[in-house]
Design brief:
Order of helices and strands: HEEEEE
Strand order of the largest sheet: 3-4-5
Number of strands: 5
Structural class: mainly beta
Largest sheet: 3 strands, antiparallel
Shape: elongated
Strand content: 35-45%
Length: about 55
């Protein structure tokens, strides 16, 4: 995310990413207070907003 901000300094960059390990572990990062994100594992959809778990 820092690389995008470096390469495009004149554009307001609000980005995020979701990464999944080979073991199925999920991690996420974002650089905005208002960037929500979601993913689904078997039988369990999860959504996050401001570091709160929403079910």
């Amino acid at each position: 995310m820092n690389l995008v901000n470096k390469r495009f300094p004149s554009i307001p960059n609000t980005i995020g990413l979701i990464a999944v390990s080979s073991k199925g572990e999920v991690g996420a990062a974002h650089n905005s207070d208002n960037l929500c994100w979601a993913y689904m594992i078997p039988d369990t959809p999860l959504a996050y907003l401001k570091a709160k778990v929403l079910r």
